[in-house]
């Protein structure tokens, strides 16, 4: 089985863990990594929100599978657009690591008035600004090691806890942010594996590493995102756990943000979509 993945340390570590899980589930299975550069990697100095955000880290990986150069496309689930790619099926969501964001540098309460936080995510900026309107934000792109080298003096930078976990860097975390207030990106902390639609043999092998609880949570988050539509450029967060879904939506230009939580019956994606519609209405209300 050939796994297509980005070549960054985080992406290749995720793909390697998936490969190990597949070998353990299917003794004798040979698994190899196929490295692919994506537009997001090639434009590492350009802010994500200016080059399209979602999809910039996955399209070339998906094309490698569609073209037959690999059998499986491996992604951070948060990078996947909510609309499925033609010809591909998400055959596995691996067991989720932490979905939370974290600060490296100073904890939020210890940042000085007007302190600097580095983040390229409009979602992370909007939520931190809601908690600390005095903060100053600067752009941040690149892999984790590059980001860590751009820590503002006397300030902080924002990272995903899952990225620090898989790279063994959790000792650098100054504060893990509460997911109830700082709502993560949909799918954050989870690895998604796609195969060609109709490739039943590969799908059957991937089924062994599909985590049912993670799939239920991430599919609810993705249903929330899908309801907002691919044209939504506003900061969005969604996190499902323990039968509860929390959604976040903001309009930074208007200085407004809304956050709501709902009970989420098992397998009920209608509730997730309704929550998205509710947040849109709340954000637009006078």
Query: β content, as a range?
Result: 15-25%
Task: Look at the structure and give the mean pLDDT.
Answer: 92
Helix fraction, binned, reads 25-40%
The tally of strands reads 13
The coarse overall form would be globular
CATH top level of one domain?
Alpha Beta
Q: Largest sheet, order of strands side by side?
A: 2-1-3-10-4
Low-confidence stretches: 40-52
CATH architecture of one domain: 3-Layer(aba) Sandwich
| Biggest pleated sheet | 5 strands, mixed
Rg (C-alpha, Å): 19 Å
Spell out the CATH superfamily of one domain: Periplasmic binding protein-like II
The ordered string of helix (H) and strand (E) elements is EHEHHEEEEHEHEHEEHHEEEH
Cα end-to-end separation: 54 Å
Q: What is the tally of helical segments?
A: 9
